[in-house]
Amino acid sequence: METETAANRPRSARGARTLKDRAQILLRYHALITQYADELADLIVKEHGKTKAEALGDAAKGNGTVEYACSLPQLAAGRIMGVSRGVVCRDLRVSLGVTISIVPLALSEVQCPICYGQR
Fold first, then answer.
1. pLDDT tens for the chain, residues 1 to 119
2. I need a labelling partner for 103 at 20 to 30 A (CA). Which of 75, 87, 112, 117 fits?
3. CA distance 95 to 72
4. Which contiguous run of DSSP H or E holds residue 12?
5. What dihedral do alpha carbons 87, 71, 4, 111 form, nearest 10°?
6. How far is CA 108 from CA 32, 84, 94, 101, in A?
7. Can you say whether residue 86 is alpha, beta or left, with left for phi > 0 and alpha for psi between -120 and 50 degrees?
8. Following DSSP, what letter does each residue of 55-94 receive, concatenated?
9. pTM recorded for the entire structure
């Protein structure tokens, strides 16, 4: 129960921020990844033995995920679609908070935290 309480603490702080504020944080993160892509690639080469081109591709792939996350304000709004007379389909997105996953070893250290939001 202690772990669950600790894990939910950042969720309530994050929930107090507006969607625009959260997107601004992601945009700054995106800019930092772009700015330091070469240094990130050097770390990937050193840690994983990939070529520089592969490492730059890993950084770009991870940054693509951040680009998608930057559209959070539009995604969170969801969609409402009239599918037939009197029937409405509603698509809502709800934050799950802290999550965990087991990822394949083939993913680099840079991709995993970006893809899954945790390090």
1. 676 666 666 666 666 778 788 888 889 999 999 999 999 999 999 988 899 999 999 899 888 888 888 887 777 777 788 888 888 888 777 666 666 666 665 555 555 555 544 43
2. 75
3. 11
4. helix 2-15
5. 130
6. 18, 46, 28, 15
7. left
8. HHHHHHHHHHHHHHHTTHHHHHT-EEEEEETTEEEEE---
9. 0.60
CB 97, CB 8: distance < 8 Å: yes
In angstroms, what CA-CA distances link 30 with 11, 21, 63, 111? Answer: 21, 14, 6, 13
Judge whether 72 and 23 are in contact, CB under 8 Å: yes
Per the listing, tokens 């603490």 go with 9
What phi and psi values does residue 88 have, to the nearest 5 degrees?
-120, 135
CA distance 115 to 65: 6
Instruction: Give strand pairing partners of 88.
Output: 82
Find where tokens 């969170």 sit. Answer: 76
**Cα–Cα dist 39/54, whole Å:** 13
